Amino acid sequence: MLTRLLQRPNCLLNRRNRYQLLTTLLINLISISHGIGIGWLSPTLRKLQSDSPVGFELKSEFEVSWVGSMLGIGSVTGNILIGSLLGRLGSKRCLLFIAIPHSCLWILVYFAQSVEYLYVGRLLAGICGGGMYIVHPIFLSEIADANIRGTFSAMVMLSVNVGILVGYIIGTHLAFYSIPWIVLALPICYLISVLLFIKESPMHLIRVGKYSEAERSFRYYKNIKDSDNIHDQNRAMEEFEDMKVALKKGNGLNENITLKDFCTRPAFKAYGPALVLLIANQFSGLFTMVNYMSDIFAKSGSTMDPDTCTIIIGAVQILGTYVTTVLCDICGRKLLMLVSTAGVAISLTAFGFFTQYAQTHYVGDYSWLPLVLMSMDIFLGNIGLVGCFFVSLVEIFPVKIRAKAASMAIVVCSSFVFVMLNIFPICMKQWGISATMWSCAGVTAFSFVYFLIFLKETKGKSMLDD
C-alpha cells in the first residue's frame, strides 16, 4: 500500500519528485525568515509605542504607518532589481542575493538608536521579500512537474506564514535585543544550502545556450540516474528534448521580447484577471492586517489579550496555507479563489458589524467573537487569495512574456502593499475600524463576482503553453 502511494506521480515523496521537494524546502528557509520579520513587527510596534524596551518610542501614527509601509517601498525595489537581473544572472544567483538585505535587517534592529534604523531595516526586509516573491515562483515553476507545481508554489506562502507565527511568538515573549542573533541563523543556513544543493533551472540554462548543463540540471531535478532503467531514461530525455525544442524554436523565447509580444490576444486575456488578483490580494487587507493584528484586536472591543489573539491568528494562517498545498492541485485554483473571496467578504462584514455594535453596547460576554471572525477571515483568505496567489499569477500569462509580465505584476502588487500599509492605520483612526473592514469586504466581494465570471482554471497547465 505504502509502495503504491509513493509511486503516484503527485506524491511529493515519489522518487522523481524528491530533489524537487528538497529544493523547495531549502529555498523556503528564507521565506520563513522573511515571515519572522513580518510577524515580529506586530507585537513589537505596540511595545515601541509605550514602555519602549529600546532608547526611543514611536510617538505618532505617522511613524507607525511609515515603519509598516517601508516594507512596500523595499518590495517594489526588490521586484524591479530581481526582475531585471533574473534573466541575466539566473535563479541561483538571485536566490543567493536576497539573503544579503534580509541579514542586514536584523543587524540594524540590534543596533537601532532611532526610528530611522527601523525605516531602513524594513526597507531591506522589503527588498528581500520583493525579490523572493519573484524568483521563488518562477524558479519552482521551471523545475517542478505540472502535477505538483501548485503544491510547491503554495509552500512559499506556507513558509512565510510559519515565519509570521514564529515572529508573533518571539516578538511577544523574547527580549528585543536577543531576537536578531537568533533569527540570523536562518539566512546563513539558507546561503550555505543554496550554494551546496541548488542547481540552476534547466529552462534558464537552455535559454542561455548551456545545453549540457541544462541536461545535468534536468536529470538532477527529475532524479534520473545512469543506473536507471533504459526505457525510463529515454522517456525522460525525450521530455528534455521537447523542452529544448519548445524554448529554442516553438515559442521564440530565444528572441528579444518586444512591446508587440505584450499586445497579443492571449496577453490581453490575462491582464484583467491578473489586475483583479492583485487588487484582491492586497485591498482585502489580508497582508496588511497581519502587520497590524495586535492593534486590530486592541481596538475591536474584545477584552482578550491582543498578543495572544495575534499568535492564534498566526497558527490559523499556517492551517490555511497548508490546506492550499493539499488542495491546490486537486480542486484547482479557481474553486479555491472563489471560496476564499466569498469567505473573506463575509467575515470582514461581520467583524465590522461587531466592532460597530461594541462601541455602544457591552460585549464582554462575546469577547471571543472578534477572534473567531478574524480567524475565519485569515483562514479562508489564505486558502486562495494568499496561498494560490503566486501560482495563479505565474500561470495565467503567455509563456513568452511570463517572467517579465509576472515581474511587472508583482511590482504593482508591492506598490499596493506600500499603499495599504501606509493608509491602513490612518483609515483605522479617521474612519474607524468598522468602516475600514467594510471597505476591504467590498473590494473582496467585487473580486468574487469577477473571478466567478472571468477567471480561467490553470491546474495542470504546461509551463510551455500559453
Automatic annotation (TrEMBL):
Source taxon at top rank: Eukaryota
Alphabetical keyword list: Cell membrane, Membrane, Transmembrane, Transmembrane helix
InterPro entries attached to this UniProt entry: MFS_dom (IPR020846), MFS_ERD6/Tret1-like (IPR044775), MFS_sugar_transport-like (IPR005828), MFS_trans_sf (IPR036259), MFS_Trehalose_Transporter (IPR050549), Sugar_transporter_CS (IPR005829)
One Gene Ontology cellular component: plasma membrane
Presence of the UniProt keyword Manganese in the record: no
One Pfam short name: Sugar_tr
Annotated transmembrane regions: 21-42, 62-82, 94-113, 119-140, 152-170, 176-198, 270-290, 310-328, 335-358, 378-398, 405-424, 436-455
Domain Major facilitator superfamily (MFS) profile positions: 23-459
Topology in membrane: Multi-pass membrane protein
Residues in coiled coil: none
Gene designation: LOC108082100
Keyword Cell wall biogenesis/degradation among record annotations: no
Name of this protein: Facilitated trehalose transporter Tret1
Localization per record: Cell membrane
GO molecular function (one): sugar transmembrane transporter activity
